[in-house]
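Record format v2
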Amino acid sequence: MSTQKPGLSRRHLMERTPALLASAGMLAAQTGQPPAPGTRAPIVIRPASVPLSEQKLLQTVPIPKQSGRGVIVLRDQRVKVINPRGKQVGDLFAFAQYSAEEFIAPAFTMTRNRNIYLQIGKGLMSNYGNPLLVLEEDTSGRNDLLYPACSGSQKPGIPASIPNCRDNMQAALRAINFPVPNHPEIVHPHNLFQNSPVIDLDGNIEVREPIAKAGDYVVLRALENVCVVVTACSSPSVVNGKEPKELLMEVYG
Ligand SMILES: [Zn+2]
């Protein structure tokens, strides 16, 4: 657990390769100049050192309905998020272990991968443009990147009497003594199993029941040491098949 103050440390910046810095736009941040056209390096997803079949189950983390849980996942370890009963959304958050101020950010994932859904073999990108996780397996094939976490105070809101994903994310971090980000309202989830397709060329979106069946899962590999939080979305609406349910997380390494 890092006790370092939030923000990119000088040491951390020095450890980044020039290519990664360039790809992340960090050179622009250092010099005050945007990267020159054509200098943005492609994102390289480091291949796995060992397959999942050769890793051991290290931790099983049940996520009761309408709650969240967090785990530290070290580089090259994997986290499997399972939908035991199907039709349940899991809001996925991941923070760099060195600072809660670097976290996976769906707008970065979408624009770098040029797709509004998660893609097998592609990175889940941070707000600094770094891939922190890579999706290796996905049995349902539908994960939303457009919606923020539900919260008690703003849309997509749910009644204050019901737990919400934004609060549950913060509670999960506190429960494992990981720092809460300074502005949790701008930490948006990658919504595992959420089925909210764009339904026409005008860009209209429809929230539908998840297509995830009982037992469907995703497997993510950590590209850096991260804190992963998954909240079992609390909404009793169609987004969770009208019944909030539990999820299960497993860590392999
Ligand atoms: Zn939610």
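Residues 91, 149-150, 164-165, 233-235 surround zinc ion (CB under 6 Å).
Strands lie at 57-63, 68-73, 78-83, 90-96, 123-125, 131-138, 190-192, 216-222, 226-232, 247-252.
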